[in-house]
Amino acid sequence: MWACVSECGKDERHMAHETQSVSGASSPGPVIDRDTAAALMEPLTDLVARAGVAILAVNRAAMTIDEKADGSPVTEADLAADRIIAEGLALLMPEVPTLSEERLHLARPPYKRSFFLIDPLDGTKEFVAGRNEFTVNLALVTDGVPLLGIIGAPALGLIWRGLVGRGAERLMVTRDASARKAEPIHTRPTPGRGNPWNVAVSRSHGDSRTESFIESRAGAVRQVMGSAVKFCRVAEGGADIYPRLAPTCEWDVAAGHAVVVAAGGKITDAQGAELRFGGVREDFIVPEFIAWGDASVACDFRT
User: Fold this and answer.
1) Per the CB 3.0–4.6 Å rule, which of 60, 190, 191, 257 could disulfide with 195?
2) How far apart, in whole angstroms, are the C-alpha atoms of residue 93 and residue 78?
3) Backbone angles phi, psi at 283, to 5 degrees
4) Residues facing residue 163 across a β-bridge
5) pLDDT in tens, 132-186
6) pTM of the prediction?
7) Distance between CA atoms of residues 121 and 168, nearest Å
8) Predicted local distance difference test score (pLDDT) of residue 192
9) CATH 3.30.390.10 at 197-301, yes or no
């Protein structure tokens, strides 16, 4: 899929730049355009795959589990995956700032121009509970909009990736990430009125406002799952919509945003407005979002 893309930007990536802190944005980095992002797709996919292998290597029955200030869990698997991605990005694109959930103490918002946005283990609760719906999320954001997204689900043997304007695909991956088989994916049209429609919902983060939104539209068939896999089900046409009308964080959304849009969908807030990333809010909160498989109906379903 990406072979037809120009290799422009390769020399630019190796130009001498002052190396920034892995999460710092004290000075703006370069603007990464679509062609340069396309040239980065394979090495970035490699990083996500390697992070997934590191997560699978952790013994869940004996691992260390700590608690963050907000009460959410963090494990040695989160930190191992984050280390691999941080070191890889520092070698690959040292001039581009990164923001990771696990290195927020280094964050210097706002992030302008281009930056990487990472959740090294999305769905830690799923991981701790012994389920397989956890992911590695990596996004490249340019001018506040996710341009490239990669979501790896190592326990499922799958990686979804997309580049806005160039399409999206799903990769079947061996457990050691040594082999991959890719197929293009696309969102599907919303079923006509009166027909059942599939909605992806969170197993661990239900809320009354999202439930009211779903209940107000007859025929909803719920698909309950964890992590950013919900975005991927929309992107591949397995679900029609994924609403989350409660606060979450930018690193939970950005990679899925890029994959869904690249696959033909759209992400908005409940009023149909576009989302912005990079520290519009200093706490990096996304108050709400809806992932639409069929971009043409987004305005028809406003809350």
Assistant:
1) 191
2) 22
3) -90, 0
4) 148, 167
5) 999 999 999 999 999 999 999 999 999 999 999 999 999 999 988 888 999 999 9
6) 0.90
7) 21
8) 85
9) no
